[in-house]
Each structure stands twice: as structure tokens, then as C-alpha cells.
Write a structure and sequence with these properties.
The protein has a two-stranded antiparallel ribbon with strand order 1-2. Strands 3-4 form a two-stranded antiparallel ribbon. About 35% of the residues lie in helices and about 5% in strands. It has helices at about 15-25, 30-40, 70-85, 85-90, 110-115, 125, 140-150, 165-175, 200-210, 215, 250-260, 275-285, 325-330, 335-340; strands at about 45, 50-55, 130, 135-140, 225, 230-235. α9 (about 200-210) crosses α12.
Length: about 350
């Protein structure tokens, strides 16, 4: 089930053809066309007398189009590193030993970062350098890659000028070569879910875990290590070899978004979710519950130097709002969101 700002994903609803026609006819103001340019037009999928609108997703380039030259060789190498990180750069890596737990980039960034709503890399290169609230400063894309190496992979930063970092960044640039600079494209964020009006419940989440997750990640949450002992077929979700606190996947909303539209891995894709929003929130609470499960320790004292920039579901105090660490961890999140909105604080998660 492995995951800075609030995610806004376009929601589509069934509409009758005449209503759509009238709406399009009336849509003549400059404001409307500004919005239209931002979200793009949706294809229509006909279902009898009703027309259903579906997401228009960014289509990454096919790997067969990678050029057969020195640049292409580096792009392919970068992709190979991301797909098989533990073999090259993990604790038993043949090139370097930077990852600390046997997890790999593809445990979170699915299909080498090319799966829509699967923590894709679609717009990563287009949006960096970028201000990151966790550090309170502007980071390069290489810095951001190292964030993942240090936290989810529980490792140490790679040299930003190394061949391997250059190859990884170059692959991300190639993957998002049609993304406008500074822009987003459909499918590059996590898909939205409905926040609950109650706290997420780890005990209810345990039931969901037993029903849908245990067959891959195990009763003990330790996943399935490959026979070679180097990488995981299914990653551990807690314990000493899982991701650290402070990782994006340790935040409940973000984790639930990822889980709903990507898990169980062999059954689900973004348009065929199995879990409800409620089930996804509850099972994310169970996986990340610190009373039930342990995980590696992390020094969080330097994170989010500007307290009001902490995400809604980042539960390590102190905060610039009046809500408890317990509510920041499990919710309900709507009161926090409304308070922050009213008081001019960031409302992201």
C-alpha cells in the first residue's frame, strides 16, 4: 500500500446530452474559458441514452520511443534504477548502498512512476525547483528524490551530481516531456476522496486489512521478501524495515487516497476501486497506528519550520491551529480545514 498541498481532482457526474449542450452554448465568458483551458475537455463514453464523462488522463511516452543514443541510455538506466532500486542502490546494492530497508521507489511510485493516480512522476520535472513546506525552502528535483531515499527507504542521501541521480532525473524529465513547465496534468496527483465526519477508526481498518490486504502483506504486515533476500514482492507496511514517520505515506489522508485507487494491487486501478472512502480511511489509520504497530524512528524536529504550513494530517505537534495531535492523525479533518480556511492558513494535505 506504499505514498504538498491539497489535492483537487475533477469529479465527473452523469449528465443528459441536452443539458451538456446548453451548458456548452452558454459557456462564453472569459472566466469559463480560463477554467476550460485548465481542466481540458473530457471524452464522452456513451451508455444507452445517458452520456458519461470520464477522466482525460495524461498519456506518458512509450519506452520504445526512448532514443538510441547516449541520452537514451541514461534515460533507460534511470528507469532501471527506479524499478530495481534495491538491487542497485539498496542495502545490498551493486552500485551504492543508500537505501536502508530493501524498499524501492516502485513500491510507491507505481509502474516506474507512469501509473495515473499512483504517485506518478508525470509533472515532477516540470514543477521543480519548488518550495517545500517540510523543509521551508526551495528544493531541486534531486533534493526531492533524496527525500524519498532518506524517509520511505530509511536511507542516506545520494550525491546529487552522481551518474545515478542524473539518470533518475533524466528519466523523469523524459516521462513528463509533454507537461508544461510549472504545470499539472490529469493523473499526476492522488485522486480525491471524501473526508469523513468522524475520526478514522483503526479497529474498523483492521477488519478491512484482514479482508483485502493480508493475502499480500501478511498478518504481521511484513510483506513478502523475494527469495533473493534483496527486494520485496509486497512491501512491509510497518515494523523496522518499513517507511519512517514523516513520510507522505504515514499521513492518513494521503495514504487513504493511494490505497483506494491502487489497492489491492492485483485487482484495482484508478477507475475500478474496490474500497469505499470510509474503508480506505480506516485501513490507512490501522496501518499507520502507532499504538498497534512500530516503525523506524525519525528526527522530526526540523520539519515544517513554519507551523501553519503543516498538512492537515501531519500529526506531530506543535501546530499553529488549536487542534490536537490525535485529531491531526485520525480526524475528523473538516473542522481543521474550516478553521484554517477562516484564519487564512494553508489547508493542504
Amino acid at each position: 500500500m506504499m505514498m504538498t498541498s491539497g489535492t483537487e481532482i475533477q469529479r465527473y457526474r452523469d449528465t443528459e446530452v441536452p443539458a451538456r449542450a446548453i451548458a456548452c452554448y452558454r459557456a462564453s465568458t472569459i472566466v469559463f474559458f480560463s477554467v476550460l483551458l485548465f481542466i481540458g475537455c473530457s471524452p464522452l463514453e456513451k451508455e444507452g441514452p445517458v452520456v458519461r464523462r470520464v477522466d482525460t488522463l495524461f498519456t506518458p511516452p512509450d519506452t520504445s520511443t526512448i532514443p538510441h543514443d547516449a541520452t537514451g541510455d541514461m534515460i533507460r538506466y534511470g528507469r532501471e534504477l527506479l524499478v530495481n532500486f534495491p538491487y542497485y542502490l539498496g542495502p545490498k546494492g551493486t552500485v551504492g548502498k543508500f537505501g536502508g530497508n530493501g524498499l524501492g521507489c516502485q513500491n510507491c511510485h507505481l509502474d516506474a512512476g507512469a501509473r495515473p493516480y499512483g504517485l506518478s512522476y508525470f509533472s515532477a520535472h516540470a514543477r521543480y525547483p519548488q518550495y517545500r513546506a517540510r523543509e521551508g525552502r526551495v528544493l531541486t528535483l534531486a533534493d526531492r528524490v533524496n527525500n524519498c531515499v532518506e524517509r520511505p527507504l530509511n536511507g542516506t542521501a545520494m550525491p546529487v551530481d552522481s551518474k545515478e541521480m542524473t539518470a533518475i532525473v533524466l528519466y523523469m524529465k523524459w516521462l513528463g516531456k509533454d507537461v508544461p513547465v510549472g504545470g499539472h496534468v490529469p493523473g499526476d496527483k492522488l485522486k480525491e476522496i471524501q473526508l469523513l465526519d468522524r475520526p478514522a477508526d483503526p479497529n474498523k481498518g483492521m477488519v478491512v486489512y484482514q479482508q483485502h490486504c493480508v493475502r499480500c502483506h501478511g498478518d504481521d504486515g511484513q510483506g513478502v521478501l523475494k527469495p533473493d533476500g534483496i527486494a520485496y514482492t509486497y512491501p512491509p507496511l510497518w515494523g523496522p524495515l518499513s517507511y519512517q514517520p514523516g513520510s507522505s505515506m504515514h499521513r492518513l489522508i494521503k495514504s487513504a487516497q493511494f490505497i483506494k485507487y491502487n489497492m489491492p494491487f492485483d485487482l484495482v486501478r484508478w477507475d475500478t476501486p474496490l474500497l469505499t472512502d470510509e474503508e480506505a480511511m480506516d485501513v490507512a489509520a490501522y496501518v499507520n497506528d502507532d499504538k498497534m504497530h512500530t516503525r523506524p524512528t525519525a528526527d522530526l524536529s526540523m520539519e515544517y519550520p513554519f507551523q501553519k504550513e503543516k498538512p492537515l494530517d501531519y500529526y506531530h505537534a506543535p501546530y499553529a491551529d488549536p487542534f490536537s495531535a490525535e485529531q491531526h492523525k485520525y480526524g475528523p479533518f473538516k473542522p481543521i480545514f474550516e478553521w484554517r480556511k477562516k484564519n487564512g492558513h494553508p489547508t493542504g494535505y
